[in-house]
Amino acid sequence: MITPPVDATTTSAWAALTAHRAAFTPDLRGWFAADPQRAGRLSHGVGDLHVDLSKNLVTDETLEILVRLAHEVDLEGRIAAMLAGEHINVTENRAVLHTALRRPASANPRLVVDGQDVDADVQAELAKVFAFAERVRSGEWTGVTGAPIRTVVNIGIGGSDLGPVMAYEALKPYAADHVELRFVSNIDPTDVAETLRDLDPTTTLFIVASKTFGTLETLTNARLARQWMWTGLVAAGAIEDTDDARSAAVAKHFVAVSTALDKVAAFGIDPQNAFGFWDWVGGRYSLDSAIGTSLAVAIGPDGFRDLLAGMHSVDEHLRTVPFERNVPVLMGLLNVWYVNFLGAHTHAVLPYAQYLHRFAAYLQQLTMESNGKSVRWDGTPVTTDTGEVFWGEPGTNGQHAFYQLIHQGTRLVPADFIAVATPAHPLVDQAAPGAPDVHELFLANFFAQTKALAFGKTADEVRAEGTAEEIVPARVFGGNRPTTSIMAPALTPAVLGQLIALYEHITFVQGIVWGIDSFDQWGVELGKVLANQIAPAVAGDAAALDAQDPSTRGLIEYYLAHRRRR
Ligand code: G6Q
């Protein structure tokens, strides 16, 4: 029997927010002028992160009612249920325990869920991953010719790809120079072809990462990679062209990460070379499980432990800090305010850190796969709008592209700005006047943008610059464009872990208010089934083609008329 969610729209807080909204006039200029404490009062720490919420379109009263809403939908009960391993992923009848992946080895009391000592299992698997990572990094793990591994290629998609890619890019300064990571995800054969084009099969190791080990893209790419490896090794005279030699090569050049170890064995990968995880880790929440094996090779066990510790510090913050100062809770509630009361459809995430250039792509999966739902966890329709579109690009590139719309368009686009104090590359522009520190120029943009978005520029200010009257309206900035500024000392593994866990929990908070199961993904499952069903028609099977709707059939026929046989 499923316990239905509290319908947020029936709470007294929702009614209070509706009334509050009706009388609400955003006025960041006025609010800041009247209240010198606003920035200090609305800035909070979480882990190493400094989070300034003061440029959001909220008053103290707005926040007070939003916090009341969180209590009225029993957010504290749902947080406790998640952390304790209750089956809050209702439609898949699963616990949701990504937080268990980063509990310290010394955690006491132990977490036992459904009869499983989760802490013991997590630590045992982590030890296996770390031992493997060390063997690759040290050169002890060799390919068939005895040469050490120089390139690790992670083959996975969705949650088995986006986390490791994003984190590898973010933590490049912490990655070993002598082992490069590459990633293959798309079933477009261009992806595997381009990624492998200049690699040497004798020094390449593949990690096939798939929770289910049944995903068409990943298994196809894994087979293509195996074919490429065999062909290359035979051509190089590294192995005989025999079945035994091929199997031996797989053992040296392929490992797997999956919850389906039987399917790993069926693919030909020795179960000794497979790392497991559990059904209570959702794909998009799995970077900190064995899915992060490639990252562990790159940044080593110490770096990976720091990442886990960073995530755990935010889990503890979520669990223990009162909602009034609880950063993921407040940021989740702000998003609810913007989506349900101020009509926002999208949310921008704008890292002023080039190494975070894949962060928005990663967040798109985390947030939109989690909260892009129209029914609640008991199967009833949602009672209000749910997940917004997340998107973003690193600053300052976005400033020269889409910021125009955020500054002066008709849409409300709440935005998170992220920056670090210490750059990875402290460069000075020696030839420029004053020899500026380039990171400071970069930060000046970060500060200037949120300031302009919040406070705008009035017509009088534009006039005072001597602007011709007819041009004035085009140069006015309305302000009251909401932003959150997140700053950290540096982009370390711990800080990255904190950022990831922060957004995981923001997503969770929004899902609880909306009463949805943020941990299933039936929309993704549909795609997996449909592609398999339609494949015979694309290969030219007349009956399968006839079974398609007229538009799909027409498109496939276009392809069939134009295809060039290999
Ligand atoms: C993530 C989703 C989905 C999944 C991919 C890959 O939460 O479930 O993006 O990660 O479809 O699935 P496998 O890891 O099973 O190959």
How would you describe this structure to a colleague?
Helix content is 47%, strand content 11%. The chain is built from 21 helices and 13 strands. It has helices at 12-22, 28-34, 38-41, 60-72, 75-84, 118-138, 162-170, 189-196, 216-235, 243-253, 261-267, 293-320, 327-341, 359-371, 403-408, 438-455, 459-464, 493-514, 522-538, 542-546, 550-562; strands spanning 43-46, 49-52, 112-113, 116-117, 151-155, 180-184, 204-209, 254-258, 274-276, 346-352, 389-391, 415-422, 483-490. Strands 1-2-13-12-10-11 form a six-stranded mixed β-sheet, with helices on both faces. A five-stranded parallel β-sheet has the order 6-5-7-8-9, sandwiched between helices. Helix 6 (118-138) packs antiparallel against helix 12 (293-320) and helix 14 (359-371) runs parallel beside helix 18. The termini are far apart. It binds glucose-6-phosphate. Glucose-6-phosphate binds at residues 157-160, 210-212, 215, 218, 282-284, 369, 521, 524. Glucose-6-phosphate (G6Q) binds next to loops.
